[in-house]
Amino acid sequence: MSGSYDNTVRLWDPTTSALTQTLKGHSDCVHSVVFSPDSRLLASSSEDETVRLWDPATGALTQTLEGHFGSVKSMAFSPNGRLLLSGSDDNTVRIWDPLTGALIRTLEGHLGSVNSVAFSPDGQLLASGSDDNTVRLWGLATGALTRTLEGHSGSVYSVAFSSDGRLLASGSIDNTVRLWDPATSALTQTWNAGKSVTAVEFSDNNLYLHTDSGALAIQSKRDIPTRTRSHASSGISFEGDQWLKLNGEKVLWLPVEFRPSHFKVNGNTLALGHTSGRISFIGFHI
């Protein structure tokens, strides 16, 4: 799955690398794509100020969500798939019913573009990261702002909850990743990544935090070198942007045209995103 500056969303079969669907309808570049938990819906958000919902099996457009007054940067489905969050350049977070397309609530309070949104695992708490350098937490039931997490000195581009809901991570262009207790607002850990961090994600066991600038060990309270990017549960990692490693051993040297700008690990499959617009898939027998 990929979004693009050609205004389309493309779906791929990672096993065969075959293109299965090209979804057309957006009138400007696509910033974000996300599947519902049951994979029966696909949401895409765009510079055209809309969120579009698709049936990934048929490629049919099922809903167009309109209401934002700026580019829609980020989305997240609730754990039960009944709600969809969107964050926008209009400084708001909006909550939608993805089945009917109805706008349920608009959350206002940020003083800059909302770059990232996330649901807590129980679906009762919402997090948003913004160009105003803050992370804000909201209650789902009322839409009330419950906490404002301050400390970043630059735009917050990514937020993510741990699977048990006890930790919240934020990545920023101030070159840091911060770990928070969402119940108390306490800052529990800070890493200096040495470069802007635009993506954060917890490992399944919550012992590592995977970012586009490095894999960070939460238990050890120290940085893993930012030039080593890894997926702890699979043993797949990078040394710089040249060598692909498996369980610490160099297994594949990547030519310049195949060095990734982004990567994602799903089980034993590695997806590489390239600045050329191509996506490569590499499977491992682990």
From TrEMBL:
Cite the SMART domains for this sequence.
WD40
Q: Which InterPro entries match?
A: WD40/YVTN_repeat-like_dom_sf, WD40_PAC1, WD40_repeat_dom_sf, WD40_rpt
Can you say where the WD repeats lie in this chain? Answer: 1-22, 23-64, 65-106, 107-148, 149-190
Q: Name one Pfam family in it.
A: WD40
- What Gene3D superfamilies does the record tag this protein with? YVTN repeat-like/Quinoprotein amine dehydrogenase
Alphabetized, the UniProt keywords read:
Repeat, WD repeat
- The protein's name is Anaphase-promoting complex subunit 4 WD40 domain-containing protein
Q: Origin organism of this chain?
A: Penicillium cataractarum
